[in-house]
């Protein structure tokens, strides 16, 4: 009997050797009151699912969204068999090109930032492979910040505590984030209107995010090191 059905009842031995009322429904495998021959008469049949499909594209261009992959149930579980696993998986992604094949406007793209200290390793790698290109810096005024930036306790997220509303910050664009064609970093706000609110997110803690206003572009960063960051 499928599920839990008290009418699938008999009297006899149970698998543990005791004698008394025993059941033939799927629930007996969890309640341990099956009849002694339940495993032979009703063998456990687990769920069987197909292979994952290919990943879809991002659900929307020009912003951080997600992509999806799916799988189907080939065989439903029976007789207390293991339940089916998740049939859908999502993964974060971002596409910098519209459906028409044109590059997204910079002010539409959410900026991904990390600590400027990460740039030292970047520059060493770039110098080693000869791909170093001249970058630039963009100065922003932080307008709104989620409380999660202050609650990042891992060593690699402590830099997020220096993000404060109203403060000016500098975000550096350098190789390899510097796009070879446009010579810009994605999310730097190029083309945005004066005082337009732009969105950013900290790498390492997706809940640490907020808005800022672009002030100006600089050839070099002039902010204190604790208020200087990198585009990813």
What's this entry about, in short?
This protein is mainly β and 232 residues long. Among the domains are: 9-41, no CATH class; 103-126 and 135-231, no CATH class.
Distance between the termini: 57 Å
Q: Which secondary-structure class do the elements indicate? A: mainly beta
How many β strands by DSSP? 12
The helix/strand order is EEHHEEEEEHEEEEE
Strand content: 25-35%
The quaternary structure here is single chain
Largest sheet: spatial strand order: 7-10-11-8-9-12
Query: Rg, please?
Result: 28 Å
- Note the total helix count: 3
Report the biggest beta sheet as strand number plus sense, adding barrel if it closes. 6 strands, mixed, barrel
> What do the pLDDT scores average to?
84
Helix content: under 10%
| Unreliable sequence segments | 124-128
Protein name: SBSPO protein
Keywords: Disulfide bond, Glycoprotein, Signal
Domain SMB: 1-47
InterPro entries: SBSPO, SBSPON_C, Somatomedin_B-like_dom_sf, Somatomedin_B_dom, TSP1_rpt, TSP1_rpt_sf, TSP1_spondin_dom
Structure notes:
The structure is a single chain. By secondary structure, the protein is mainly beta. It has helices at residues 28-31, 38-41, 118-129, and strands at residues 9-13, 19-23, 48-49, 64-70, 73-75, 88-94, 111-115, 136-145, 168-173, 197-202, 209-218, 228-231. Among the domains are: 9-41, no CATH class; 103-126 and 135-231, no CATH class. Strands 7-10-11-8-9-12 form a six-stranded mixed β-barrel. It has a two-stranded antiparallel ribbon with strand order 1-2.
